[in-house]
Specification:
With about 140 residues, the chain is mainly beta. The chain contains 1 helix and 9 strands; from the N terminus they run ββαβββββββ. The longest helix is centred in the middle third of the chain and has 6 residues. Pfam families: Yippee-Mis18. Keywords: Metal-binding, Zinc.
């Protein structure tokens, strides 16, 4: 039989499996996307509450409530940076989203215009409304 350039219509339908770009080790406490369970961050990457106390006892706020500040994240895409006036002043931030389900999770601090906020540069805010705790939590 001749080989066709196009497969028959019934063979075109394919399902996409949930494959994440990065998996965090099962032995560590992790945070995952509440919508699709893609790993987002290791608990060790969370900026500690002690550090928050040191920096004027600020609690991080997202557009949908409380948020956590992380040093690094995985399985996250980044949009274009834009200047926004946040509770702590003017910052250049880029929205971040889950690479798997495309839900907007928070933002990345690209630039802080005030010297007291420079520690946030390169860090990530993820809103608690979009995270779930996985692996090793008691």
């Amino acid at each position: 039989p001749e080989l066709s350039e196009e497969p028959p219509a019934e063979m075109v339908k394919m399902t996409k499996s949930k494959t994440f770009q990065a998996y965090l080790p099962n032995c560590h406490r992790t945070y995952s996307c509440i919508h699709c369970r893609a790993h987002l961050a290791n608990h060790d990457e969370l900026i500690s509450k002690a550090m928050q106390f040191f920096f004027l006892m600020q609690s991080f706020q997202g557009s949908q409530g409380r948020a956590y500040l992380f040093n690094s994240v995985v399985n996250v895409g980044c949009g274009p940076a834009e200047e926004r006036v946040l509770l702590t002043g003017l910052h250049a931030v880029a929205d971040i989203y889950c690479e798997n389900c495309k839900t907007t999770l928070g933002w990345k601090y690209e630039h802080a215009f005030e010297s007291s906020q420079k520690y946030k540069e390169g860090k990530f805010i993820i809103e608690l409304a979009h995270m779930i705790k996985d692996n090793g939590w008691e």
